[in-house]
Structure prediction request, 279 residues.
Amino acid sequence: MAAVWTAIVAAVGSAIGAAWALIAPVDCAGCSAPDLALCRACAAELRPRLRLAVLEAAVLEAAVLDAAVPDPAAAPGVGTGSAASAAAVVPLVAPLPYEGVPRRVILALKERDRTELAGLLRPAVLAAVEGAYARVPPGSTPLLVPVPGGSSGAARRGYHPAELLARRAGLRVTRALRPARGRVRAQKRLTLAQRLEVDAARWRVSPRVQGARLVLLDDVVTSGSTLRAAARALRAAGAEVVGCAAVAATPRRVGESSILWRFSDDPLGRIDDKHEGED
Prediction:
């Protein structure tokens, strides 16, 4: 039934994309074919196949979190020896590889203001969020929190990509993170070591999430540094991050990612076994 629903959604999305192309002529975001927002062949490349990983926070991150909240009474559940510091491992899922057609489509949305493509990514967004929610520990239903980029990117685009994708997929989101001004460098320009130093203070956290369980959603994950930093910031505010999702994951290459992925339908092997030992 899920496969049928995904096919229906994809067909509707393709029809919307074709209608949009008639109103405002465009080229296919995946291959540049004329008169279609996304051609049939490229749309097939957006079919979700869930990738699974575990996002592990380094010991340094727990130390930073404890130093940020020296008085445990200041934020219940956060502080030295707290359960929040220990709960630094969360499931991470992503349904698309950030290469080829998916990469070009996401870049077109983010860099060329092709917001009509958000609807075509709906099946992948839903697969990411449903996959993350299916793997959280038992408890109250988590809130879905999109991870925003920098304030300069939002000012240029007028939106945050992860939030736009979630809303176009019909999902209810909680704006728990807001970017602090002037603190963020573009992630694509950073080395792995620099990505892992991403500062949790790059965001302001809404006090509404204190005591809440959260699932984080990002558009693209490479090293996981942005999701780790967001989780630190939210834990410091008294929230519990129980799952993470990204629409696309960068394939693991030397020096580019510290995340070991496997397909959900192939539990015996990792996607990146051939790269083992390279990092």
Q: What stands out?
A: The longest helix spans residues 2-23.
